[in-house]
Amino acid sequence: MRRKGFRGDEGVSLWRRFVNHGVTLAAAGAVVLVLVPLFAVFGYLVYKGIGSVNWAFLTQTPKPVGEAGGGMANAIGGSVLILGIASLVGVPVGIGAGIYLAEYGRGRFGDFIRFTADVLNGVPSIVIGIVAYSLVVLTQKQFSALAGGVALAIMMIPTITRTTEEMLLLVPTNVREAAYGLGIARWRTTISITLRTATSGVITGVMLAFARVAGETAPLLFTAFGNQYWNWKINQPTAALPLQIFTYAISPFEEWHRQAWAGALILIILIVLAITAVRLAAGRGMVKGVS
Amino acid sequence: MADHALGAPRLPGPEPVVGGPSREAGGIRRGSLIPDSTSQWADWAFYGAMLACGVSVLVLVGLIVYELVTKGQLAWHAFGWKFFFTHDWDPVNDQFGALPFIYGTVVSSILALILAVPLAVGVAVFITEMSPRWLRGGLAFTTELLAAIPSVIFGLWAIFVLVPFLRQTVEPLLARYFGWTGLFEGPPYGIGMLAAGVILAIMIIPIISSITREVMTAVSQQQREGVLALGATRWEMIRMGVLRNARAGIVGAIILGLGRALGETMAVTMVIGNRPEIAKSLFAPGYTMASVIANEFSEATGNLYLSSLVEVGLALFLVTIVVNILAQLLVWTVTRGTRARSHA
Questions:
Q1: Chain B: nearest CA to A116, how far in angstroms?
Q2: Hey, CA dihedral for B69, B75, B81, B85, is it positive or negative?
Q3: What tens digit of pLDDT does each residue of B156-194 get?
Q4: What is the CATH classification number for the domain harbouring B300?
Q5: B-contacting residues in A 49-88 (Cβ below 8 Å)
Q6: Which residue of chain B has the CA closest to A186?
Q7: CATH number reported for the structural domain that contains residue A232 in this entry
């Protein structure tokens, strides 16, 4: 809650008033300073990227060094494949774990899982990459979309778990009791009543987790590895949009830099769309507790 | 699953809206009122499945620890503690010491904190206590949008915008006026520790400021009113009524930002210069723990090399875990009780 500035502050010393206004200015200055890089990043993405996004960019595979043209179609496709695998693995497990915590996880054991999920959330993505490498790449003896998907799934699970739990807890106990009172089995209540009521909130959590891993690069470096060609097989090295941006950005070629900006623009558009959808859903009062 | 087992028609699904008037259930249908043995069986099966999902979180963390420890064992046996205190990183002669990476990670993260903390706290204070109401939501959303930008895009931006700016404008100035400190010596490449610190700062501002906001909001309104009633100005109210009460939580937010900075990989890798050296000057290139894994892991030939990289990963894992747990506990001391669970 805010109150209006001081009326009748004659009694307040000049120095205190000066400090008061000074701090207000400083805080406003901080906001401006933080907004500068934000707008600079978005501005440059649009400015540098828009000229390079064209039909060829969206439909062709990369051309060899030195040749103009080509695109990132295979990387976009690869990202879809990897994110698809990640969602297929991560979403059900995350929601399941969230249901467990909300509906059964009241005791010590639930707290332990909750705590572990938070720990997992804080694990650096590059470390997750190492683990996915050991688990999948070493056993299959090659880099693959599957390994990348597993790495991203591991990163999605804690986010989805905690938001699902939070959303299910928002459903009033009365609703559950009403269902039990009608003689509906507990599992059926959870799925058809509780989860359904919280659906939009749960979807929000999933979208947030998705937006978070969509731009992840580090865990894909030595799992999906990258590929200059189309690949739809889950056991083959696969290109991904963030990986391609990285490779192109650190390359010495002008043409590739251009494409890196274009790829980055596409990536950020996808992520901002996801976030805005979440925001709209949240703004309509369907979800609470998500900022 | 056992949809037919219940013998009940599909439920109409009343969908009561949280906090709002609940919609009328569309007609009451007859269902099985008494749970029979099949539904009890289904209950157990459902419970088992959900439990398995919950336990999988534990299994994942267990797997992470197990894989890191076993794969890093070779390096541990070869070098022991010396691994963390020597600075030779020489794959050709199988000599590995992680000190330059630890140094790079620590210095870049601390630099990021020094730059980010005043700004992030300032933003949080402005949004929660000073901003006009109509601006508040928009500002909160916009600053948090910064968190949605992927690391690799920050890196791309840093390479082509931030680094040239540092090289041409900021670093010459720093060298001229603060060169005597020894921190700003040598040729201003642009790329180096300073660039890494700046880009990290930009990346951790949103997390620090959003958690600081959360903590400040948790401070009770009466505290503010009490201090104001004593004749405090707005800033005095914020300082004595809000910041002092939220202290532990704000420290938690900062430590959480530190945890983020320690593990950040791509943007740092793209601008830090990737040279395993320890230099006093912030203009000099460096290397971080996360960066060395990102750059060398897929090319590591030889078991000892790979194992050394995994051990760097293990160290990074342990440090971030400790840092994150500490931060969570601190944040929790302030926000505890404000987010009452609605369902016991």
A1: 6
A2: negative
A3: 999 999 999 999 999 999 999 998 888 898 888 899 999
A4: 1.10.3720.10
A5: none
A6: B43
A7: 1.10.3720.10
